[in-house]
Every structure is written in C-alpha cells, then in structure tokens.
Specification:
about 5% strand; mainly alpha; single chain
Length: about 200
C-alpha cells in the first residue's frame, strides 16, 4: 500500500464516547475489585487475633486503596469526554495524582507486607508453600499448624480451605483423624489425583 494514498481516519466523537463508556465500566469494576481485596485483607487482622486455621494474605492488597484516586480521576476524565467538556488541565491533574498515588501504593504495600508477616509469625503461623498458586494475585496461605499444610493436599487445597472455613466459622478445629479422612476422601474424588494414580 502506498503511504501517500493512505489517510488515517480520525476517531469520531461518537466512537470516542462509546469507548469512554466502556472504559468507565472497566475502571468502575476495578474500583470494586480494589475495594474488595483491600477490605478482605484488612479482615485478616481480626482473623489472626481470633486464631483462624489459615490466613490468605495478599501483600499488594493493602496498597490498592491508594490506587482509588487514579481510578477516580480517570473516570472523571472519561465523563468529561462524554460531555464534550474535556480540558488539558484534567490530564495534568491525572499525571500529578498518578505520580503521588502509585509510589505511595508501592511503599504502603511493602511496609504492610513486613508488618503483616511479623504479625503472622508472631501468632505462630507459617507459610504453606504446598498451597501456593502460580496464578498472579492469588493469596499466599499461612497456616496455624503444620498439620494443616500437607504436600498431598496440593491438588485439593481450594476444597480443603473451604473445609477449614466451616471450622473457623464455628470456632473449632478438626481432629487429626477428621482431617486425615477428609483429605483422603477429597483426593479420591479429585480427577487429577485419579488420573495420576490410575484410579
């Protein structure tokens, strides 16, 4: 194609407004996600104090609250685009907010990571590497006792954590026998385990 004959069509105002609506929806959802994981992480402080069987910890979750101003200004910018009232000074405001918020978010997350780690270790919790997930954003699992961290349970850790939740809600803990029988039953019903062991 001859570059001289190619003329890039500018984005129409209608297309820009439609795109703005889509982006507002995305950023609003991000508001919800950031808020949810922040308050979920804050609830871990009470869980540690109450001695829950396990704690799911996301270090970056605490800092997510400082990302709110960035999302707020982005949504404000997009609303102005829809209303045909966008001004250059709003973009400058966004840059200033981002320059402040993002470093604060990172620093707050690092400080919180050290603090929550010391709280967990101080209350006798230990990191269970068998329950770690390769998926980014999933919580790191800390357990109250080594008996709750079992290598054989790495295939059923999600179901096992739900099982632990039932005991946490009742303020109880399973006996060694109950735990062992539950793990065996869950493994026998797990398709990946069945495939690995030819069951």
């Amino acid at each position: 194609m001859n570059n001289r004959n190619y003329i890039e069509k500018p984005v129409s105002k209608r297309q820009l407004k439609v795109l703005s609506v889509v982006l507002i929806s995305i950023f609003s959802f991000m508001f919800y996600v950031c808020g949810s994981i922040f308050f979920e992480e804050i609830s871990n402080i009470a869980k540690i104090r109450d001695g829950h069987i396990y704690i799911g910890n996301r270090d970056l979750a605490f800092g997510s609250i400082f990302f709110f101003p960035v999302l707020a200004v982005l949504n404000y910018m997009l609303v102005l685009v829809i209303m045909d009232k966008f001004k250059d000074h709003v973009m400058k405001l966004f840059i200033k907010v981002a320059i402040i918020s993002i470093p604060v978010m990172i620093v707050a997350s690092i400080i919180y990571s050290f603090w929550i780690g010391s709280q967990l270790r101080g209350h006798g919790y230990s990191h269970c590497t068998w329950y770690d997930s390769p998926t980014r954003g999933t919580p790191v699992i800390w357990v109250k006792s080594e008996r709750y961290c079992q290598e054989r349970a790495n295939l059923i850790n999600y179901d096992l954590l739900i099982y632990f939740d039932k005991f946490d809600n009742e303020g109880k803990e399973p006996s060694n026998k109950e735990l062992d029988l539950t793990v065996i039953e869950m493994l026998e019903n797990n398709l990946f385990y069945q495939r690995e062991h030819g069951l």
